[in-house]
């Protein structure tokens, strides 16, 4: 059974893309089949995986979503790229911003991405969707398509207001479109352990949200090496395998996998008792 997870936070630069890459490749290193979906018009995920000119790709997420809306046929694996470290990628690019506008007048505007992902999810153990830094139509589509959400939060920014908005949006999507949507947890990223500020943010998050949400045990350290990976088109495991950021992403991958295993066991039990 595959699991679809959206990495979402409407604030920009919180580590969504870096986490999508390193969680995805981390899961692939554990033998899982993984599809990464670039649902951000900036195409940063596509760029980070070494496809440095996303806008020049002949087929991208916008292409297949448009075909899906127009009810034109497409091959399930149309446009899917393969990365040397064992993950597949449905690339995204600037064409998604035009989609964001055209979706408003589409009947199935909130579930176009879900329809597409449903055609391919059985081929994978995990599908990770890297969201735009907004709560617009594409992010709603990602939340409608997902089984769960991971919220990366930057350690040096107090997320209180943004978090409330995001949690409200998730609750609304759950009520109106996708009742099974759950929150896997909040991942604190770019933690600078030399300052007290990061520790404070982490403390505040755990204090204010810890009883409602899982705050992942693992925190991702601030790391120049992690920031370098996107230009290299590699994961942190390939770029700096012995560094702290690689160790942290490895531990985070393990936490996510444990959640996935528990969910599978629960589902299995429910299926048996039917
Ligand atoms: N652990 C880290 N340490 C230092 N820099 C990092 C770390 N993780 C990510 N970065 C850098 O911070 C910037 C923002 O990260 P990233 O692109 O992953 O965030 P994002 O939430 O996907 O951004 P956007 O909202 O623009 O899509 C990038 O330049 C990235 O290389």
UniProtKB/TrEMBL annotation:
The reaction(s) this protein catalyses: ATP + H2O = ADP + phosphate + H(+)
Domain AAA: 3-183
Protein origin, superkingdom: Bacteria
Pfam families in UniProt: AAA_31 (PF13614)
InterPro entries listed in its UniProt record: AAA_dom, DNA_Partitioning_ATPase, P-loop_NTPase
Assembly and interaction partners: Dimerizes in the presence of ATP but not ADP; ATP-binding is required for double-stranded (ds)DNA-binding. Interacts with DnaA.
Family according to the record: Belongs to the ParA family.
Protein name as it appears in the record: Sporulation initiation inhibitor protein Soj
Source organism of the structure: Desulfotruncus arcticus DSM 17038
Origin organism lineage: Bacteria, Bacillati, Bacillota, Clostridia, Eubacteriales
């Amino acid at each position: 059974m595959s699991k679809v997870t959206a990495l979402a936070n409407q604030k920009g630069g919180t580590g969504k893309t870096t986490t999508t890459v390193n969680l995805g490749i981390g899961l692939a290193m554990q033998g899982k089949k993984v599809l990464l979906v670039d649902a951000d018009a900036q195409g940063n995920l596509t760029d980070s995986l070494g496809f440095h000119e996303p806008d020049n790709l002949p087929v991208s997420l916008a292409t297949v979503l448009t075909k899906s809306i127009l009810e034109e046929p497409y091959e399930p694996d149309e446009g899917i790229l393969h990365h040397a470290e064992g993950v597949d990628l449905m690339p995204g690019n600037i064409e998604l911003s035009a989609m964001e506008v055209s979706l408003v007048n589409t009947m199935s505007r909130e579930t176009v991405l879900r329809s597409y992902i449903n055609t391919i999810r059985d081929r994978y153990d995990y599908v990770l969707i890297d969201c735009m830094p907004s709560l617009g139509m594409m992010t709603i589509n990602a939340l409608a398509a997902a089984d769960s959400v991971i919220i990366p939060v930057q350690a040096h920014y107090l997320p209180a207001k943004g978090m409330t908005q995001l949690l409200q949006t998730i609750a609304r999507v759950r009520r109106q479109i996708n009742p099974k949507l759950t929150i896997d947890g909040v991942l604190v990223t770019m933690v600078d352990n030399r300052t007290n500020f990061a520790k404070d943010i982490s403390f505040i998050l755990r204090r204010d949200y810890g009883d409602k949400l899982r705050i992942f045990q693992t925190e991702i350290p601030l790391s120049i090496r992690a920031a370098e990976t996107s230009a290299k088109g590699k994961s942190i495991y390939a770029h700096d395998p012995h560094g702290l950021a690689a160790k942290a992403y490895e531990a985070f991958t393990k936490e996510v996998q444990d959640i996935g295993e528990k969910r599978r066991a629960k589902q299995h039990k429910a299926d048996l008792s039917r």
